[in-house]
Amino acid sequence: MKLSNEELNLLAILEENHNVSTESMAMQLAISEDDVKNLIKKLEDEKVIVSYPTLIDWNKIEGKETVVAMIDVKVTPQRSVGFNEVAEQIYRYPEVTSLYLMSGTYDLSATVEGKTMREISLFVSNKLATIENVLSTTTHFMLKKYKHDGVIIEGKDDEDRRMVVSP
To answer: Model-level pTM greater than 0.85?
Structure first.
């Protein structure tokens, strides 16, 4: 779906602060309050705005698609600082949208966004893997998002689709 500049700017405003008044949005966009309300309703009806606080499915908007990867990172902890210094180096990259210390086989879990799979692979090979004390990485590309932060993105949430099992 291709959106106008007004719609894209409105989405950016809502994503930053979903509590902003329609009056304020109208002033920022130089359009009427009624136009703002109509644009919001249209974007909600088309499920571009999925929920509030504003969750936007950017992959439905032409030219705004992103590739998301979850990358497991094995690290050698450093004396007296543990994983903190390596974690700081990783989370400072703009491609990294979240980073967590994990239990299990891998130490850190990073969520990375890019325009293409190649862009993410170059980030891993040129930036992430070259950090001192990073021993290995495993990259998992997100293929489809069904639910995010408790909000169902794709599918019907009111229909029970479990198979009936009877004796």
So the answer is: no
